[in-house]
Amino acid sequence: MSLKPGHDLNYIASSGILKLINPNNKNLQFPANFLADFVSASLGITGTLTALRNRFKNQQGLIIDCSLAGGCAFLANIVT
């Protein structure tokens, strides 16, 4: 999905979090903040700090793969 355009609401809906936010499916409400952006940025920061620590400790680099939909799916697994 990396080549397809999308918005925060698309990522939230595709990960299943929108259904958790609106369990009755009546009058769907958009989250008060940009959930996909916040979650994915937090995971990206954590991954980057882990990679830097690994570089100083083992002299090896790491590849950090952080997607908006993947971050929301990760959060959905934690919440459920």
The Cα radius of gyration reads 15 Å
Overall morphology: elongated
The percent range for strand residues is under 5%
**Domain count:** 1
The oligomerization state is single chain
Distance from N terminus to C terminus (CA atoms, Å) equals 24 Å
The overall pLDDT average reads 85
Largest sheet: none
What is the string of helix and strand elements? HHHH
Count helical runs: 4
Kindly state the number of beta strands. 0
Helix content: 55-70%
Structural class estimated from helices and strands: mainly alpha
Q: Which stretches are poorly predicted, pLDDT < 50 over at least 5 residues?
A: none
SSE inventory with pairings:
Layout: H1 8-15, H2 17-21, H3 35-58, H4 68-79
Helix pairs in contact: 1-4, 3-4
Description:
This protein has one domain. The chain is elongated, with a radius of gyration of 15 Å. The chain is mostly helical. The two termini are 24 Å apart. The longest helix is centred in the middle third of the chain and has 24 residues. Helix 3 packs across helix 4. The chain has 4 helices and no strands.
What does this entry show, briefly?
This protein has helices at 8-15, 17-21, 35-58, 68-79. It is an all-alpha fold and 80 residues long.
Tags for this model:
80 residues; mainly alpha; 4 helices
